[in-house]
Amino acid sequence: MSQSHSRVEPNLIDDELVQKAIEEQCPEDIGMLLKMEGINFKDVTELQLSFRNILQVDNLWQLENLTKLQLDNNIIEKIEGLESLVHLVWLDLSFNNIEVIEGLDTLVKLQDLSLYNNRISKIEHMDTLQELQILSIGKNNLASLEDMIYLRKLKNLRTLSLTGNPLCQDEQYPLFVVASLPDLMYLDFELVSDTTREAAVLKYQDLIEPLESEEAQALAQLEEKQAKQKELEYHKTAFVEHLNGSFLFDSMYAEDPEAAKLAYLPGVGDLLQAYRQEFVSVCENLFNFGLKEHEKREAEVSDFHTSLQEALTANQQEGRKIILDFEHQSSRMLDEIHNASSKDIAESKQAEYQQDILQLSEALMTLEMLVADQVEELLKDFESNIAAIASTFIEDVKGIMTQCRDLENRHHEKLLEISINTLEKLLKNELHEDLPDDVRMLLMDKPSLVNTLNASHHIRLLKINLRESDILCSTYRWQASVTEQAFQEEVDRNRERVREIVQYIDNLQEELDNLRELGDNAAGLL
Q: What is the value of pTM for the model shown?
């Protein structure tokens, strides 16, 4: 049972304690070996630290591959120090002094958790434990049946133990738990019967149906959000994210309070609406064009990899045929060497076999050179095609973004004309519209007004230019990365293939050398 550290000298988890625990859980002969050779903590997958008066969980970060951890029967007061143990599947923290469920966020693979016999009064902070199947949390201070509603978040929970908590004193406790957790199979070590499940659903139908409705709505919203995020990621790969609407236009005005004031001038509202409509239309054209070009890029990459795989497959098949033919002949040749009736015949056969090995090496290396040349040609064509596709896309993007700048320039000219005319009317007391004071402040004099309009104009042009630069830079980066990756993959493939050939030939040569040595030894004995 849990202990008070006022009666027991607390212990800390250090390397010495961990090493001792590892040695103890191993068979005696292996434990001795570990003492002599040392322990690589990264190789440890299970660790038992029970009954060690541990007060604070710490210094476990080196055990990053742990899947099972026992910390039961200690004096632990806080769940902490487990962040790096992301592979944990089984965790036992029973018989401690824990008051709050926390520190488990990174343990997303956890399937079995025991918090039995602690001081926990609320079930919380377990949202990330979506793989959890077994939860033992009996003999704590849980008093509210509402905690069962929280456990609905754990969709894989099948076994739950709550015995010994205050909430178990409620006679409706079993039915409430089963109604709240419809997929639960075992409650307090007993199989949930169909009769109990039916009674639970009937009794708490009015409570559960609204919950199910809320969860279905939340799930639909989550799926919609995920679908939008997935769509946005796709748009980003096409370099045209947020161009299928007014995002760029709105961003041009988001940091320009003066533009909002000028919208009060006569005729500016209609002018701005027309500008917005045309600008968004151009952006949507760029968006649709970008998606089509993305498909072209993907198709080009796919075609390249298809052609590459065909070339490599044909080469591999030819290489396997050469090796199979050699191994068929080498089997016969090795038998002849073994069964040679004299040393001279054996040496002759060995020399012949040596020549066969050299010819095999030459054939395989020649075959690799041929496919390397073939792939090099494919890579050159691929690089050229990618460059052409990128260049076409870049030029068209520049053209479309020029349309955006032209629209901004025309809008600026018309806005300037309207603003100056309004200023002149105001100075002549011919302005009949009632303008807000902050708008009238913009119409104090022509130089100030023109400077204000020009500053806003430059801000909007800068937004357009930055968006164009983003698209162009993304395209250049894609062009460089996709070709560099293709070339590097071929370099790696070629090196690996040459290494395989050399290793294979070396093995054959070693086998032949061993035969010679055996023959020489036999001759020496004679």
A: 0.73
